[in-house]
Structure formats: structure tokens, C-alpha cells
């Protein structure tokens, strides 16, 4: 497929909007397909689906791949059959307006000073849409949601990441229920990417010196609404065959691969910004993967402004914001001295610092030769503002890193918190949005971060809310059944199994969803500890319960794969067949169907290991209720009336005891609260108290846990002070 250049804005403005030559129509769809803006506008995405619903699904909802299979004439013919031409013209004009009319945005009012010196947001993964597979889980989705909200709010922000042409993996289970990983090459031509060019109009390349020769990377540009995301890619001539594959896979490979990827992201990312002619006012390091970046910025300041290393460090730290996401020491990247010297040696030469000084920046105790180099530690040392991602995670992080500030009491450790949020337009189902349009006022989306905006939901007609939810639930169950039969066919199982998959799940039954990475601390297997009791709940003829599970285990995580196997194999037990199901290959598409359609979202991590969690926030928007351990975001969200809590937020020092207690609490809350409330119907057949909880959940949580609120917090508490030289550090608590 030929790469289509996006027409200049001036050319767009000159265009005759009623023109309908096939080429013009095709060109408009191409332009729309090449900006991920379409992915959070469901009615725009439907344009592509309507062109060819079957291929749309088969191609992972990838509009570029879909258009590549059709000629302009075919598109025009189909569009006129489907009466889509006006809709295409309108969508194209809306995109154009969105990109050009920015005066009225919150960012234009509140973050104007960032205009000439934008925020540079670094992250190792970005989850924006299933057709751009460069994410693995929550961290990536958070980054994607962050930049989408920055776009919506009109915040001057550019983003930096890596392009993984094999992404994470596709998951299948074999007939024993064991996870199989398949790596699929993404064709660049199907991605909404174009080569990033410098001021001279030539494609940008960056080169990073190591003690073992240079590592080279090219730079791609992805348009995410108004935000530009740049992705570094090592598959270039001049790199060794091994290095050409360096950025192939997300979280694959050994520690040497890992440090090389992080070198490219951090040092390479800063070099790419310079080549692009961008001078950021603030740097936001989303997790430790990019924490080498400030070293390169320090080098720039020494070179440009003649500063000493210490002075440059002080100034760069002032501009740097660091967000930590990991509440367990083992979750932090650590590198030994040899790897650091091999990869950062040339950088430290330029900085004029010794090997021990550099190692000291990555150690809690700089002089301790036994200590390895930790990315989180250098991130904390090179940033003036650091934050955790929920209130409880803030407490845990201050305790965990207290030794970095031995002269301070724990409460005074300078790590604040900004609780995560989700990008509402991405996760909100269209029928729910249409309902909000009626109850919250037509322009509610422009104030979705304001809790007041959501108060109108108290006026909702309970029957209307319930019916809307039910339509979404049916859609979810249809999707799951379709996936289950596909899974059976893939394993060449007999027709009896395929038929059973087709008949799985009961639309009237209380439906509980659980989907996330199968990291062991998330304890997907917790309910197995009370399996016989859960079996009774499931098989209650009057008040049945059913479970939908999904999630990938990291390829090296055998215990996580064991959880998947146990859960998937429950289908062989007649008590659970068709009532506990496992959907393979969890991605944003599976996530969207599940969070939009379940009655209850289950989250039972081992407290306090879930730094925030975000999937439950997506559920809130669509009327589902959370049933969760009081960990991460739920610890600050739950108010007794807007969902359910498993236990009361305590844990035993012995994890086995904690796990058993939590399993007991899980069973008890289902038996005593969730099931009775769901099945308590009035004469009109509606569960009024349940619906009341749905309303409370939306009214009290939707604004607070939106990514718009989150990005506004980052702007006010971090970006503006960082770019403007203000020195408030504790505002985040
Ligand atoms: C939201 C989301 C996550 C994060 O889920 P948590 O419950 O926060 O772990 C992970 N993967 C996908 C595909 C998601 O959409």
C-alpha cells in the first residue's frame, strides 16, 4: 500500500466539502484512518465497519488495513449504498475542526505557558487501540489514555515511546489449557505511522554510543488527535542483525535487551526531540524504563549553557516529573555495573563523571558497591517531583523509598500521588453516551472532569438505565460466545464442544467479569479456594451466577500460566461448563466488550500490591459495579454505596492467611450482598436498589477517575511548576 501524505491544513480548508469523487472520498477516509482520533469516536469507527463488517472484525478493526483492500471505486460504491457520504464528509470536517480550533480548550486557558515548551511524556508502551499492538497491559493503556486526554484538553504535550513490530504476543490455550504465545509481525504499512522528519525535511535517525559501538534508531510519528507520539525503531541498516530486532518485542529478552531498549527510549528519545527541534519545558517519565533520559538532557544543558554537571543536574531535575507504578521491590528494573558501564559509559564520559558517581545515581546508598543500579532510584534522584498512582500507593512508595531521604521522617518523603484515570470517550459505550447526552446536557463531554457534570444521572429513568445496560450485556455475551466457539474450532474440538460454546452463558444470570494481566499478585485464582461454595452460587437455579475470565500471563511467569490453566479447565467440570469461561487473547477489544457488558467487575489483588488498577474505572462509566479489595484506586473510591468491598482493607503478615481470609470475604460478599441485591426485583421486574448503586457509582466516580482529571492534576501540580521553575514539591498530597 502506498503511504498517503496527510494534506496540509490549508489544503483541507480550501477543499470543497460536497465533492464526492471516489478519490476525494477515499482520501478523506485515509486522512481519518491516519489519526487515532477516530478510535475514540464510535460513530466515526462505524464508518469503517460499515464498509465491510466482516473484514473489519477480521482485521482487528484496523482502518488502514481495511482501506488497503479496497479501491476508491469500491469504497465510493459501498458508501453510496450505505448512505455514508454525508457521514464521511462530516467526520472529516470534525477532525479538521478538532485539529485547528484549539482556542477554547482547557489547556489554552490553563496551560498556555507550555505552548512554546511542551511536555515530553516518555513511556515504554502505549495502548491506544487494538490495531496498534504496542502495549501489554495497564501501564500502556494508562499512557494511551494520558495522551488522549492531553489531546482533548489541548495540553501542549508530545509523547515518546518505542515501536515493537511484534508487540506483545497473541495468546492461545492448547487443549490442556496451557498458554501458547505467538508473535506476529505487524506490517508497518498497516500502522498509522509515518517517518518523522526534522527541520530539513529529512527522516530523523538517532545514534546512541555504547562501549560496544553505536545503536541506531529511526523515528516514527503517530498522530493521536492533537498529540504527536514518536516511536523509536531499531530495525535500521547499520545496526547488527541482533540489534535490528532489539525493539521487536515488548518485555521480551534478557536484562541486556532490556537495558538496550531503555537506552534507546531514554537517551535516544531525548536525541530525537532535539533532532525534531523540540525544546520541552517539562519531562514526564512514566515509570522507570525511561529514567536514563535526564542524563542526556543534563549533557545538553552542559553543552548549550556551559553549566557544570551539578548545576545542570539541579536544573534538569527541576524540569523532570517521575511517576512510579510498582509497589514491589522485585518489579523494578535493576542492572549490574558491567551493563551500566557498557551502555552509559560514553554518556558519563561526556558528563565528566566517574563510573562510581554514575552508579551512585542508581543506588539507594551511593557508596554501596554491592548494590545494583535501579531505574526507579535514578528516576527519583533526577526528578524534583515524583508521584505514585493512588493514595495508598503513595504511602507504600514513601515507605519503600524512605532510605533515599534518611534525614526525613516517612511522611515527609517527597513522593506524592496522583491517582490514575481513564479516557472516558475511549471506554464509554455508545448507547451509554447517548443516554448521558440526554441526562447530563449535550456538552457534558467538555466538562467530564467536573463532578457536578455527572449529577444529572440522579434524574435517570431506572428502566432506561437497566435496558441500556442489558443491551450492552447481550452484546458482551454474544461476543464471548463467538470467541468461545472460535477457540473450540481452533483446537479442532468436536461439534458438541462448539455447540456448548454457542450456548454458554445465560443473559439473565448475574455476570461477573475478571480480566487483567495474570500476574500472580492479582490472584485470579482466589475464588478457587472456596470453589465448592462458589459452585453452589453458580448453580443456584433461581439466582445463578456466571464468570467471564480473560488475561495473559507473562511468557516467563509459570505460576501465572498455572492460574490460567486451572481456570480454563473448569469447563471440563459439569458444575462450571458454560458458567465459568475463559476468553483467549485479552486485548483492548476484549477489554472493551467486557467492561461495557458485565454486571460486576471483580478485582482481588493481594493488598497493597495493586498500585492503582484502572479496568474498574472503565466499568463505572458503563454502569457495571465494582466488587474489589480495598486496594489501589478502590481504597479511595468505595463509599459503601457505589459498589462492593471484599473485606475491610486489612491484611495479615502471613500471605497464606491473607489469601484465605480474602477468599472467604469474596465468597461472603457475593453470597450476602451481591447476589441478593441483584435478584431483588420489584413488581416492574427491576432491581431498584441495584440500579441505585449503579447511579451512585457513576455520580461519585466517573469524574474523579477520568484521565481528564488526572491530566489536569499533572498540569497543575507538576507540569506548570516544572516548566515555570516553581518549587512546590508536596502539593500532590
Ligand atoms: C484497562 C486495561 C488493563 C488494566 O487493567 P487493571 O485492572 O488495571 O490491571 C490491562 N489490559 C487492558 C487491555 C486494559 O484495557
UniProtKB/TrEMBL annotation:
Gene3D superfamilies: Glycogen Phosphorylase B
Coiled-coil annotated residue ranges, if any: none
Domain DUF3417, chain residue ranges per copy: 28-131
EC number: 2.4.1.1
GO BP: any one term: carbohydrate metabolic process
Reaction it catalyzes: [(1->4)-alpha-D-glucosyl](n) + phosphate = [(1->4)-alpha-D-glucosyl](n-1) + alpha-D-glucose 1-phosphate
Molecular functions (GO terms): glycogen phosphorylase activity; pyridoxal phosphate binding
EC primary class: transferase
Keywords: Allosteric enzyme, Carbohydrate metabolism, Glycosyltransferase, Pyridoxal phosphate, Transferase
Cofactor(s) listed in the protein's UniProt record: pyridoxal 5'-phosphate
Entry superkingdom: Bacteria
Residues modified to N6-(pyridoxal phosphate)lysine: 618
Name of one Pfam family that matches: DUF3417
InterPro entries registered for this protein in UniProt: Agluc_phsphrylas, Glyco_trans_35, Glycogen/Maltodextrin_Phosph, Glycogen_phosphorylase_DUF3417, Pyridoxal_P_attach_site
PANTHER family the UniProt entry points to: GLYCOGEN PHOSPHORYLASE
Function: Phosphorylase is an important allosteric enzyme in carbohydrate metabolism. Enzymes from different sources differ in their regulatory mechanisms and in their natural substrates. However, all known phosphorylases share catalytic and structural properties.
Family: Belongs to the glycogen phosphorylase family.
Protein name: glycogen phosphorylase
Amino acid at each position: 500500500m502506498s503511504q498517503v501524505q496527510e494534506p496540509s491544513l490549508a489544503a483541507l480548508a480550501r477543499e470543497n466539502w460536497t465533492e464526492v469523487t471516489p478519490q476525494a472520498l477515499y482520501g478523506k477516509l485515509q486522512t481519518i484512518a491516519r489519526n487515532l482520533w477516530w478510535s475514540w469516536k464510535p460513530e466515526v469507527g462505524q464508518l469503517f465497519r460499515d464498509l465491510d463488517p466482516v473484514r473489519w472484525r477480521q482485521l482487528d478493526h484496523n482502518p488502514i488495513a481495511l482501506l488497503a483492500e479496497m479501491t476508491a471505486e469500491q469504497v465510493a460504491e459501498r458508501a453510496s449504498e450505505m448512505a455514508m457520504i454525508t457521514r464521511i464528509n462530516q467526520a472529516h470536517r470534525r477532525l479538521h475542526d478538532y485539529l485547528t480550533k484549539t482556542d477554547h480548550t482547557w489547556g489554552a486557558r490553563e496551560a498556555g505557558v507550555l505552548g512554546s515548551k511542551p511536555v515530553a511524556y516518555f513511556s515504554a508502551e502505549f495502548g491506544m487501540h487494538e490495531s496498534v499492538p504496542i502495549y501489554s497491559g495497564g501501564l500502556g493503556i494508562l499512557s494511551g489514555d494520558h495522551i488522549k486526554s492531553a489531546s482533548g484538553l489541548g495540553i501542549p504535550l508530545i509523547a515518546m515511546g518505542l515501536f515493537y513490530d511484534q508487540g506483545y504476543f497473541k495468546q492461545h490455550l492448547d487443549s490442556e489449557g496451557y498458554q501458547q504465545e505467538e508473535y506476529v509481525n505487524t506490517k508497518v504499512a498497516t500502522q498509522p505511522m509515518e517517518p518523522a522528519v526534522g527541520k530539513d525535511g529529512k527522516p530523523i535517525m538517532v545514534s546512541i554510543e555504547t562501549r560496544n559501538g553505536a545503536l541506531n534508531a529511526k523515528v516514527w510519528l503517530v498522530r493521536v488527535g492533537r498529540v504527536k507520539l514518536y516511536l523509536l525503531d531499531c530495525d535500521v541498516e547499520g545496526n547488527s542483525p541482533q540489534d535490528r530486532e532489539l525493539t521487536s518485542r515488548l518485555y521480551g529478552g534478557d536484562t541486556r535487551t532490556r537495558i538496550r531498549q531503555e537506552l534507546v527510549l531514554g537517551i535516544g528519545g531525548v536525541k530525537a526531540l532535539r533532532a525534531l527541534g523540540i525544546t520541552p519545558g517539562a519531562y514526564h517519565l512514566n515509570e522507570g524504563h525511561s529514567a536514563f533520559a535526564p542524563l542526556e538532557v543534563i549533557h545538553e544543558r552542559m553543552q548549550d549553557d556551559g553549566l557544570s554537571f551539578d548545576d545542570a543536574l539541579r536544573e534538569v531535575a527541576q524540569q523532570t516529573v517521575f511517576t512510579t507504578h510498582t509497589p514491589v521491590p522485585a518489579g523494578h528494573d535493576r542492572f549490574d555495573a558491567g551493563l551500566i558501564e557498557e551502555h552509559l559509559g560514553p554518556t558519563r564520559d561526556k558528563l565528566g563523571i566517574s563510573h562510581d558517581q554514575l552508579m551512585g545515581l542508581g543506588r539507594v546508598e551511593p557508596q554501596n558497591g554491592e548494590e545494583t543500579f535501579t531505574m526507579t532510584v535514578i528516576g527519583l534522584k533526577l526528578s524534583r517531583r515524583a508521584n505514585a498512582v493512588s493514595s495508598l500507593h503513595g504511602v507504600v512508595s514513601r515507605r519503600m523509598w524512605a532510605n533515599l531521604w534518611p534525614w526525613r521522617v516517612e511522611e515527609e518523603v517527597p513522593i506524592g500521588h496522583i491517582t490514575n484515570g481513564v479516557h472516558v470517550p475511549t471506554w464509554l459505550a455508545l448507547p451509554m453516551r447517548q443516554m448521558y447526552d440526554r441526562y447530563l446536557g449535550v456538552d457534558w463531554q467538555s466538562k467530564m472532569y467536573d463532578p457536578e457534570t455527572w449529577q444529572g444521572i440522579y434524574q435517570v429513568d431506572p428502566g432506561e438505565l437497566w435496558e441500556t445496560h442489558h443491551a450492552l450485556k447481550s452484546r458482551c455475551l454474544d461476543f464471548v460466545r463467538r470467541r468461545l466457539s472460535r477457540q473450540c474450532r481452533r483446537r479442532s474440538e468436536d461439534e458438541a464442544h462448539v455447540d456448548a460454546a454457542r450456548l454458554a452463558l445465560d443473559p439473565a444470570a448475574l455476570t461477573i467479569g475478571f480480566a487483567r494481566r495474570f500476574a500472580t499478585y492479582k490472584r485470579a485464582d482466589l475464588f478457587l479456594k472456596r470453589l465448592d461454595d462458589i459452585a453452589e452460587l453458580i448453580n443456584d437455579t433461581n439466582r445463578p451466577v456466571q464468570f467471564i475470565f480473560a488475561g495473559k500471563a507473562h511468557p516467563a511467569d509459570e505460576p501465572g500460566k498455572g492460574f490460567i490453566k486451572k481456570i480454563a479447565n473448569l469447563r471440563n467440570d459439569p458444575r462450571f461448563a458454560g458458567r465459568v469461561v475463559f476468553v483467549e487473547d485479552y486485548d483492548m477489544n476484549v477489554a472493551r466488550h467486557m467492561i461495557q457488558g458485565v454486571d460486576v467487575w471483580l478485582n482481588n489483588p493481594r493488598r497493597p500490591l495493586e498500585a492503582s488498577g484502572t479496568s474498574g474505572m472503565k466499568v463505572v462509566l458503563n454502569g457495571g459495579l465494582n466488587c474489589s479489595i480495598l486496594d489501589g484506586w478502590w481504597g479511595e473510591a468505595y463509599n459503601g454505596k457505589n459498589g462492593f468491598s471484599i473485606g475491610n482493607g486489612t491484611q495479615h503478615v502471613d500471605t497464606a492467611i491473607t489469601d484465605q481470609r480474602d477468599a472467604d470475604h469474596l465468597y461472603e460478599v457475593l453470597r450476602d450482598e451481591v447476589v441478593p441485591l441483584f435478584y431483588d426485583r420489584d413488581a416492574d421486574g427491576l432491581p431498584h436498589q441495584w440500579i441505585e448503586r449503579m447511579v451512585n457509582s457513576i455520580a461519585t466516580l466517573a469524574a474523579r477517575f477520568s484521565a481528564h482529571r488526572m491530566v489536569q492534576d499533572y498540569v497543575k501540580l507538576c507540569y506548570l511548576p516544572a516548566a515555570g521553575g516553581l518549587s512546590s514539591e508536596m502539593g500532590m498530597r
